[in-house]
Design brief:
By secondary structure, this protein is of the alpha+beta class. 23% of the residues lie in helices and 28% in strands. Helix 2 links the parallel strand 3 and strand 4 (87-95).
Length: 310
């Protein structure tokens, strides 16, 4: 679990950001069809992001006069762009003194490469090459699926992010009318269930200062071109911009509990107590919350002289 700053967007910067988004949307006929980020919910690695063909663009909006500051950092921008094999861009904006309107500093798209500071034209960077999606993109798809479900259920989303190395993935106002969280993990066919992170119990414990209600969500992804004809058929790659099928069975509640070594000790202790008392039993493992919990089933009635513990 990582601590990330949930810096909010100021009202002054919002006007700059909104103008920047409207400007970018006008650069292609019919507007940009695939926005990845066009909202003001924290946290902020980029301010705006979109897909054009097989390329991803991550944009940080900046006031050339330095009077208005946006949330996040250039370092965060480069992190998300590199994680998604995309392009880190800056969009310098200037507030017009006579009208108060925000306009790009440069012509055309107004974008500059965050590293070289050279102007770029996203359209010229699109190719016909098939590119496989990255783990960041898989996580972003999965988080979007869970977020959409929560919104359809009427829950207010407080924040979400798609960095696969940062948890929780989503904070929302749950049925408790208080903050609740979700750790999201994705997996790819032929797997149909994502593994819970080994530190899920630790994440739950660290979230206790804010909320004692948390969930795990598994989202499995497969290409729409997967034939499903042979048991050992090759896995169709997940190409950027191509269709996918999703498997999401809902949220699994998580709460701080005994860790696996503690539950194994408990299992052994119960088994020994029963053995000492001459009771045959089986212990079935079942997965609930964030670790293994053991369910005891006695094979025959408990003897009358079985110690009650009183």
């Amino acid at each position: 679990m990582h601590n990330i700053e949930l810096q909010k967007m100021s009202e002054a910067f919002f006007h700059c950001w909104s103008s920047a988004g409207n400007h970018l949307n006008k650069q292609v006929q019919g507007g940009i069809q695939h926005w990845l980020r066009a909202h003001t919910a924290p946290p902020f690695l980029e301010h705006l992001s979109f897909r054009l063909g097989n390329q991803l663009f991550f944009v940080r909006v900046e006031d050339v006069d330095g009077k208005v500051q946006g949330p996040g950092t250039v370092r965060g921008l480069i992190t998300v762009a590199n994680g998604c094999r995309g392009h880190a861009c800056l969009l310098p904006m200037k507030k017009q003194s006579h009208s108060g309107e925000w306009l790009p500093e440069y012509s055309g798209w107004g974008l500059v490469d965050a590293s070289t500071k050279k102007q770029i034209n996203p359209i010229t960077m699109v190719t016909n090459e098939k590119l496989e999606i990255t783990p960041w993109e898989m996580q972003d798809i999965s988080v979007q699926v869970v977020r959409d479900m929560l919104e359809k259920q009427g829950h207010q989303i407080m924040s979400w992010q798609s960095n696969p190395d940062v948890d929780p993935s989503i904070w929302f106002v749950g049925d408790s009318k208080a903050p609740e969280w979700v750790v999201v993990r994705s997996t790819q066919f032929p797997e149909n269930q994502a593994k819970r992170p080994a530190n899920l119990n630790a994440i739950a414990r660290q979230c206790l200062g804010v909320s004692d209600v948390g969930y795990f969500a598994s989202v499995a992804i497969v290409s729409v071109n997967q034939p499903f004809q042979l048991a050992d058929e090759p896995v169709e790659p997940l190409w950027r911009g191509y269709g996918v099928h999703l498997k999401f069975d809902g949220l699994e509640q998580v709460s701080p509990s005994l860790n696996c070594s503690e539950t194994m000790d408990l299992k052994n202790e119960i088994s020994q107590l029963a053995k000492d008392a001459g009771v045959d039993l089986t212990i079935q493992d079942r997965f609930i919350d964030s670790d293994v919990v053991h369910q005891v089933r006695f094979e025959r009635p408990i003897p009358d002289d079985y110690p009650s513990g009183e």
